Amino acid sequence: MAQNIIVRLPDGDNLEFPSGACVADLATSLGPLFSEAAIAGLMDGKLVDLNAEIVDGSTVAIVQANSPAGREIIRHSTAHVLAQAVLNLWPGAHFAVGPPIENGFYYDFQLPNEAHFTDEDIEKIEKEMRRIISQDQPFIREELSISQGLDLFADQPFKKEIIEAVSQTNTEGLDPEIASEQTVAENGRPIVSIYRNTDTFVDLCRGPHVPATSRLGAFKLTRVAGAYWRGQESNPQLQRIYGTAWESNEALEKHLIQLKEAEKRDHRKLGIEMDLFHFPSEIGGGLPVFHPKGGLIRMLMEDFSRQQHQNANYEFVWTPHIAKEELFKTSGHLQWYSEGMYPPMKLEGATYYPKPMNCPMHTLIYSSSMRSYKELPLRLFEFGTVYRFERSGVLHGLTRVRGFTQDDAHIFCTPDQLSDELTSLLKFVLEMLKAFGLSDFEAELATRPQKYLGDLKDWEVATSALKSALDEVNISYVVAEGEGAFYAPKIDVHVRDAIGRRWQISTLQVDFQLPQRFDIEYVGPDNQRHRPYMIHRALFGSLERFFAILLEHYAGSFPTWLSPVQVEVLPVRDIHQDYAKSVTNQLKAEGIRTQLSYADQPLGARIRKAKLEKIPFVLVVGDEDITNATVGVNVRDTAKPTRGVDLIDFISHVKKENTEHTTSPSVLETHK
RNA sequence: GCCCGAGUAGCUCAGAUGGUAGAGCAUUUGAUUCGUAAUCGAAAGGUCAGGGGUUCGAUUCCCCUCUCGGGCUCCA
């Protein structure tokens, strides 16, 4: 006897269905637009398959294919198809995990006879995947007991390991990589869910999935890679295939275009093209040299940063690049960070290490005299160059190097000052980043990890001070539970660049370990000695990395104030050379970085060359300009030149862009 | 470090089933003097990443090494 059930929609409306109705029925009732886009359901906050039966009284939303959750499902389902294809093509292969990731998915395999995937295999596998998709195989969910699951995957060791992990723990404790593969039932009785595509292919999975493979197809396998089972180097290395998948071919195409755009902006490519820096192999991997133009940009970045720090009452210090082992024993680096440090040098009976961080040395500056509470907060700043040993495989352009310069400061303050100091610091960070044209921020509050040092009370004080700073500054943030450093919680500031990529840049860490290790103190108003708190902070993070991010953000077209060459002056003919030279000299006298060209090529060619160099302003001067003391101005990324601009007006325009940090050069207003 | 891939002129790339190599841009140079995205000519530039092997002969085939790129791990 069928009874009706009530479904609540997200907007609060109630709908009635016969008992046994599934999510797809709801989608159908909402009209063709919904039913076509529907990929899964969200029932009382839990993602379910389209054919899941609706629970009476629940709130159900339709997950559409083009939503973040919908795409995740499409990617997860495409990963299953990938697994089926590989198992078909390599009989006897073992499959491990295949979760969705940002913009795509991957799947890890162990191939028989220790075989490896090569690039040629990608094409073969894609073809097999398309064959599978064309069969319109359904995804059918089943739930099994642990022992049934172990039987089903008897010859799949990685699947068995996942099932065993499920049987021993709850979802929260589960390795996140594995959690996406599996779940446990609400009643606490461990079960495993599986999704069956064919009689022979079935995969362990939490789900949900698309109803059938016909909903897939806008995908592309992108690369092969090695990856350790569960991310542990001691585990066997598996063969991973990465892919991307979308709800439509248009969306896939858009993503592939975005990848191409990112490739065009690659700082390693632009760095060579624009003659900014390179990595001489004679020096060694991860050790860049900056050429004159790159060096100039870097100097401008540093100069501005120094000025801002000076305004914010920082004091400037300088410390050496190596120090005796005793220092790093005291700081704890040799115990906690030794694998990141370069090996020691033994000289005259002492052992020296290149510094991986500046904090121990700054702490010594603090402790060089007895400090009064009246001196605090004491803010010590340095462009400190540090050396960290990175394994060869992890080096990546300027973003991951072995020697780099931090815009590093350590703030020593009283516990009372901590909260205010963090708030003003966070404001200072965001102002600095904004001055470089970055404005889309997201913060992450990383809290106490499982393995930590110090008192719980200190952790609480520090974490809540960080949190109140975030609230005060009104920046959107997420809490990354357990992601803090072992010695302290921290705020990481991320930015999104011009094409939407997320970069981790600034970091603010509260530290109560180092003050203790170095036994530093201040004398309070009570005439007693107290322990200060310490804040580590870097705004650019590393100058090299920040340089790379800016280069990619601007695609090489730096704002006027950061452009190594701001103006190029082109005489129309060689009889205009003297005037061009006089214009150049006047601009230079005003501190504007200007270069002069000769009329040895047709004007068009010289303009083209200057524009390709991404110079913000290209000036053309000819007969009329000599008569009127004007210039013809070509603004970067603007097709139409402005003729007859008074040189004096032009100079003040450029100077204004310099001081205001205008992000892209703007066209001058003419009086005419 | 491990898995996959790639190294030909400063840069971007072509090339030969094994007979020691080319183009464009850049550079130098000669001519050209031109108001808005490529003027014409010439020269110079290479141990085809390095080493070893097979071969009458290797840049090409095989092995090793180095460097770079994509991942894993790690993080600024």
The rough form would be described as: globular
Largest sheet: 8 strands, mixed
Strand order of the largest sheet: 16-21-22-29-26-25-23-24
Q: Please, what is the CATH homologous superfamily of the largest domain?
A: Bira Bifunctional Protein, Domain 2
Number of domains: 4
User: Whole-number average pLDDT?
Assistant: 91
The total strand number stands at 34
CATH class of the largest domain equals: Alpha Beta
Helical residues, percent: 25-40%
> What's the CATH topology name of the largest domain?
BirA Bifunctional Protein, domain 2
Helical stretch tally? 21
**Measured distance between first and last alpha carbons:** 86 Å
CATH architecture of the largest domain: 2-Layer Sandwich
- SS class: alpha+beta
What features would you describe in this structure?
By secondary structure, the chain is of the alpha+beta class. Helix content is 34%, strand content 26%. The protein has four domains: 4-64, Ubiquitin-like (UB roll) (Roll), CATH 3.10.20.30; 69-259, 2-Layer Sandwich (Threonyl-tRNA Synthetase, Chain A, domain 2); 273-319 and 358-553, Bira Bifunctional Protein, Domain 2 (BirA Bifunctional Protein, domain 2), CATH 3.30.930.10; 560-660, Rossmann fold (3-Layer(aba) Sandwich). The longest helix has 22 residues, at 68-89. The model has no long low-confidence stretch (mean pLDDT 91). The structure holds one RNA strand of 76 nucleotides.
